[in-house]
Model the fold of this input.
Amino acid sequence: MIARHQAQHLPGARAFSREGTEMGTVREVLDDPVTGLHGFVELESGLLGRSRTWVPVLQATFDDLRLDLPYRAERIRHAPHATLGPDRVLDAAGEVALREHYRVDDEYAGGAQAVGPEDEPPS
Done:
């Protein structure tokens, strides 16, 4: 889990998949409005950072401007689209689709709790 004091250093950090593939740069950090935990980060990648993807970070680790995500590169690349509203909250349908895609469950009130990012070991 990423500590609260580390969140300010996440934007600009390089993000890596479970198998070590660089996935992009952290553009934005969203906290869960109920728990205050870091819920999702938005990654930008591709030519001129035009590709954007939201990834849950509850089980991610962060050290020295490197964000290690517990998801395979293919899962991150094929994540559904979600839109950030003016209130800095993901649109409801997009958040549901992301939680289903990444197998994230809402077991405790308002919090994002990862059930298990991947079933198979890294290759």
Remarks:
- The chain has one domain: 4-114.
- Helices lie at 73-77, 92-101.
- Confidence is low (pLDDT under 50) at residues 107-123.
